[in-house]
Amino acid sequence: MANINTRNMQIDNNEDFNRIIGLTMAQFVMDHDNSMHGIVHWQEVEKNAIMLAVQPNVDMTVVRLFSYFHDCKRVEEYEDYEHGERAAEFVKECRYSGKLDFINGNQYNLLWEACNLHNKGIISEDPTIGACFDADRIELLRCGIIPRPELMSTPIGKRMAEKFQFIYR
């Protein structure tokens, strides 16, 4: 997915992005191929993130990075309530070790917050954080969970959840 071309792309150097994918994959201790929260899920979240980033004021770089960081520190498929905090801590480690030197301070703050809070069942009024949350929540269908419109943060996310409610109920 790292070589996607889009008019809204902000990551200038795909080498940086590919390096981040490698770093996050190296952190993932569960089965890379068979986990519900592994690389296939991350790639699907990235596709959703790119779609959601067409909304005003959504930072494409942050939502794409979120796709790979948000579950990279999971250690359990089902009840791993601290994985968001661990992912945020890894974002912090990457920032301070220079591995995220291609993003600015605001982007770092948004990425950290989105990772830290993505599994708390809250919404965000920030367009970028909301797009991160929605990109992941759209993928709840893979677990047999129908996304709820009231837990989506963006207009597109809400609309998709409404359609899912209609289709799958």
Please provide the count of β strands: 0
The name of the CATH architecture is Orthogonal Bundle
Q: Major β-sheet, in short?
A: none
Remind me, CATH topology? Hypothetical protein af1432
Order of helices and strands: HHHHHHH
The overall pLDDT, averaged over residues, is: 90
Specify the helix fraction band: 40-55%
Approximate strand percentage: under 5%
Number of domains: 1
Q: Measured on Cα atoms, how large is the radius of gyration?
A: 15 Å
Poorly predicted parts:
1-12
Which shape, going by the Cα principal axes? Answer: globular
Number of helices: 7
Topology:
Blueprint: H1 14-27, H2 39-52, H3 60-69, H4 83-96, H5 105-117, H6 127-137, H7 155-168
Helix pairs in contact: 2-3, 2-6, 3-5, 3-6, 4-5, 5-6
Protein model, in words:
This protein is mainly alpha-helical and 169 residues long. The protein has one domain (14-168): Hypothetical protein af1432, CATH 1.10.3210.10. It has helices at residues 14-27, 39-52, 60-69, 83-96, 105-117, 127-137, 155-168. The longest helix is centred in the first third of the chain and has 14 residues, at 14-27. Mean pLDDT is 90; it is low at 1-12.
In short:
The protein has 169 residues and is mostly helical. The chain contains 7 helices and no strands. The protein has a single domain (14-168), classed as Orthogonal Bundle (Hypothetical protein af1432), CATH 1.10.3210.10.
Can you tag this structure with a few keywords?
7 helices; 53% helix; single chain; 169 residues; globular; mainly alpha; disordered N terminus
